[in-house]
Design a protein that fits this description.
Layout (H helix, E strand, L loop, with lengths): L4 E9 L2 H5 L4 E8 L6 H15 L6 H7 L14 H24 L4 H18 L1 H7 L9 H20 L4 H21 L10 H11 L2
Antiparallel strand pairs: 1-2
Helix pairs in contact: 4-5, 4-6, 4-7, 5-6, 5-7, 5-8, 7-8, 8-9
Length: about 210
């Protein structure tokens, strides 16, 4: 166990009764150790490792070593490796959500969808390991559901501007499936001359026209 306090100094006082008994009264004053880390610092360090090596190679010990801490110090913030991975998944969804929001901006409905679609694919292409985290299932012990719901509500609102609120859920899932499918195909390296990458723009046009 790591204790969070240390003794700053010991103050001794004498009293007549204490002197007669050959002892001194002792008063100990303590103060907390300054914190060497926090939750966000741990997440940022872990995310850097995931970006470089993938989540499969993530370990509490490696993150602690990067922060020059003992592994036990991280357990104050994350109960185990699974909890850290779940928090990273939540963070990755939050980052993607910010990217999509920025892409949409205050654009007109169709242009906003095009920008969101391109930003989604670009995020997956440029940060494949972080993007992979967005697909991890949420757990009740984390805030993953909150980040996922925020992203879903945002996309749903953008899609509703084209399809209307009634058709928005089905249209949003169809758009998501199309975008994710394109990212997987591109990552697999199967797109080329016979399977052109321009199919992305074609599919996006078809999705918009279907409204």
């Amino acid at each position: 166990m790591i204790y969070g306090v240390h003794f700053e100094y010991v103050h001794r006082t004498s009293s007549k009764r204490a002197v007669k008994r050959g002892r001194q009264d002792v008063h100990c004053f303590s103060m907390p150790y300054p914190s060497k880390t926090d939750r966000q610092t741990i997440l940022a360090t872990a995310m850097d490792q995931v970006s470089r090596d993938g989540v499969q190679k993530l370990a509490i010990r490696s993150v602690a070593a990067a922060l020059d801490l003992a592994p036990n110090a991280l357990y104050r913030y994350f109960a185990n490796l699974a909890a850290l991975e779940a928090a990273l998944a939540n963070e990755s969804r939050r980052r993607l959500h910010e990217v999509l929001q920025k892409a949409a901006g205050k654009k007109a409905p169709e242009e906003a969808i095009r920008s969101i679609a391109r930003a989604y694919v670009r995020f997956a292409r440029e940060q494949p390991q972080v993007f992979a985290l967005t697909m991890m299932p949420s757990t009740p012990e984390t805030e993953g559901d909150a980040a996922h719901v925020q992203s879903w509500c945002f996309v749903l609102g953008q899609v509703a501007r084209i399809y209307g609120e009634k058709k928005a859920p089905e249209a949003a899932v169809a758009l998501w499936a199309f975008l994710h499918g394109m990212t997987v195909l591109e990552a697999a390296g199967v797109l080329g001359e016979q399977k052109p990458t321009s199919s992305f723009e074609f599919g996006l046009r078809m999705w918009i026209k279907a409204a």
